[in-house]
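User: I'm preparing a small set of examples for a lab meeting where we compare how different chains pack in three dimensions. I only have the primary sequence for this one, and I'd like the structure in token form so I can line it up with the others. Please keep the answer compact; I'll paste it straight into my notes.
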Amino acid sequence: MTRPRHPPTPLSPADLERFALRYVERYATTRGRLADYLRRKIRERGWSGDATPDLADLAQRMADRGYIDDRLFAESKANAMGRRGLGARRIGEALRHAGIESEDLEAVTPGVKAGSVASAIAFAKRKRIGPFARETAERPVQEKHLAAMLRAGHALDLARRIVRMAPGDDPEALIVPEWDQL
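Assistant: Understood. Below is the structure token output for the 182-residue chain.
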């Protein structure tokens, strides 16, 4: 026989602070993600206080204490995604989804754009596209490769050039100053 579950006790301001501290000690996060997490906890457990808590203020206090750094989070996430071969568009979407605000996003964007060719080459190498393929791909296969590169967030012109390269071509020939402007 199972015992009936008791409903969880509603959160107090001290509980909310404790949940926030526990979350930032365990995970690299942003102010937006922390506020979403706390909002979910309040929805699950309820709130015992009179007024609804200001979750953005609590997240900002954690940032003021140095527990959260949105710009550092954005830089590390963008670098990791770039090394995996994801493009600028996909990285930007992921950072916006993580709650990165526009000024932090704008600070990271030049570095992402500067590494766009290297990221596209890394993606092509990982997926054996273009110069990293074993044999020249037929048109339907090239279209699939192009679609994969576009889903990964790479610019259309750059993706086309990589997909159309013959196996064994030097992908470093793609690195020209004009591509830094993408």
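A couple of notes for your slides: The chain is about 60% helix and 0% strand. The chain has a mean pLDDT of 91.

User: Perfect, thanks.
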